[in-house]
Amino acid sequence: MDLNELDFDNIGSWPLAIKAIFIGLSCLVAFLFSIWMVVKPEMKNLEIAKQKQAELLQAYEIKYSQAANLDLYKKQLKQIEILFGNMLGKLPNSSEVPNLIEDISKLGTTNGLEFELIKPEDEIVKDFVIIMPIKIIVEGNYHQLAGFVSDISFLQRIVAFDDFTIRRKLPTAGKLMKKVTPDEELVMEIMAKTFRYSTDYKMSTK
Question: Which of 1, 35, 120, 143 is 20 to 30 Å from the Cα of 157, by its Cα?
Answer without folding.
Answer: 143
